[in-house]
Write a structure and sequence with these properties.
Layout (H helix, E strand, L loop, with lengths): L1 E9 L2 E7 L9 H8 L8 E5 L9 E8 L4 E2 L3 H15 L3 E5 L4 E8 L2 E7 L19 E5 L2 E10 L3 E6 L8 H9 L9 E9 L2 E8 L3 E3 L3 H13 L6 E6 L2 E8 L1 E7 L4 E6 L1
Parallel strand pairs: 2-3, 4-6, 11-12, 13-15
Antiparallel strand pairs: 1-2, 1-18, 3-4, 4-5, 6-7, 7-8, 8-17, 9-10, 10-11, 12-13, 13-14, 15-16, 16-17
Length: 272
């Protein structure tokens, strides 16, 4: 079966988006993994735009899978890309997207710039989740002879841990990322960010994404970093998070707001 899909990215964070509002489409885990490889279509996440509930016709539900074929709760850049598709299709400036655990309000700022409200961060250890009741603001992780200190765990729709370091790119995340992601303290695994303060409004990041690996950008990691920096009094509540291919702006006032560029929409066909 051939189906039409969209290919988009936000700062190099790469997505395959499939609209199944009018046609039932299912892709098995093995096929997701195959399609996600760089020698195939290649993506960090596969996102389905699902059938609208008649009770809330303005709400657009989505289902998200990482490139390892596992379903996940949130994808900030992917949600912004979906918002761009919906706004363009409906000729509107706003869209409401529903994930498995949040309602996200998005606004089209310009032709290729989307701001989205990501909801409130979660700090309770059981809901991050952690496997035991410890101080989520000061997590030390020892891997072999290497120890990381003062990691800050948080949930922004999905679980993250953020380490502030002097140089975020001196750490080998291809090696450390999967070890931290699968560390015993994180029962649902975790996204990993190494962050570096440039000044009170600008932060560099290097991100290992749960289930996707080393990524050029990650919207929820930007959200987590902005909140953690504010909570640690390292920045204000309006920060620019710098990735390799651009910037996401994070505003935090109980609710997290994220803004940044998305790519043009490319229509493709895939074989199932």
């Amino acid at each position: 079966m051939d189906i039409k899909a969209f290919k988009m990215d936000g700062l190099g964070n790469d997505f395959l988006i499939v609209d199944r509002r009018k046609k039932s489409i299912s892709i098995k885990k093995e096929k997701i993994i195959e399609l996600g490889k760089s020698d195939s279509i290649g993506f960090d996440q596969l996102i389905f735009i699902d059938e609208i509930d008649n009770v809330t016709p303005s709400y657009n539900p989505i289902t998200i899978y990482n490139s390892d074929g596992e379903k996940v709760e949130a994808c900030g850049n992917g949600s912004r890309c979906v918002a761009k598709i919906l706004c363009d299709q409906e000729k509107k400036e706003e869209a409401v997207i529903v994930t498995s655990n949040r309602i996200l309000k998005a606004q089209k700022i310009s032709e290729n710039s989307i701001r989205i409200e990501m909801g409130e961060p979660i700090f309770e250890w059981k809901k991050i989740p952690l496997s035991k009741d410890i101080n989520h603001k000061k997590i030390n992780i020892k891997i072999d002879d290497f120890e990381l200190k003062d990691g800050f765990a948080i949930n922004v729709g999905n679980p993250h841990i953020v380490f502030f370091v002097d140089d975020c790119f001196k750490y080998d995340l291809k090696k450390l990322g999967p070890l931290i992601e699968n560390y015993e303290l994180f029962p649902e695994k975790i996204n990993v960010t190494f962050a570096q303060i440039k000044d009170s409004s600008n932060i560099l990041v290097n991100v290992w994404e749960r289930g996707a690996g080393l990524t050029k950008a990650c919207g929820t990691a930007a959200c987590a970093t902005g909140v953690v920096a504010f909570e640690k009094k390292l920045s204000g509540n309006n920060t620019n998070i710098h990735f390799k291919e651009g910037i996401l702006n994070i505003k935090y006032n109980n609710v997290i707001s994220m803004a940044g560029p998305v790519s043009n929409i490319k229509e493709i066909e895939i074989k199932l």
